[in-house]
Amino acid sequence: MLLCVLRLSLYQRKFNLLKKVLRFLGCLFISLVSMLVLTCIYKSIFSEGVFFFNAFVLAVLGAVIGLGVWIIANKNFFENFLIFFVFSMFNTLFIYFGPVTLDRSLSSFIYFYSVQNGSVSRNIFKSEYFEPYVQRRFSDGDKIGYLKCDETCCYPTFKTKLTYRILYPLGKLSNTLNDYKEFKDFYNANINDICPNSQNRVE
Fold this sequence. Notes:
The chain is an all-alpha fold. The chain is built from eight helices and two strands.
């Protein structure tokens, strides 16, 4: 009799755990779909906005919606906090590796074009068509306060310098500055324009 009770209790625990796992996966899916819907709405309304920095907010809002469904059947504060954290991290990874990359990565544009057309000419970088996409990076930086731009030049702000002090040493430690060095060497060798109000250089 006691053995039957123990077995029944074990089966009940397994069943409850399975229900919780399925509820978790369902709420995670709701969180992801909600984030994608919010992203579509955002891009429809703010087509010229800087999506990169607003994507995190959309990821968190999607997590909040998923959490709202989850807490209907769960009132444990600590567990709810962990669920919110997991949903937020999952959404953040997804949105930055997916929609944000597709929105901002010039490399992705080149890859897609080569697949759809069979090839892509490297001369596209010199064309008048491509220049607006490059200039957009400057206007984005001006909008979010990382650059202060006039008609011919862009200058770093305090926010830019602070970010540089944090990320540049990390780039040296992780050996991920090779592309930047190539860019800088190319710029120094080919661009002769000198901005009139250039600030002190930082090495």
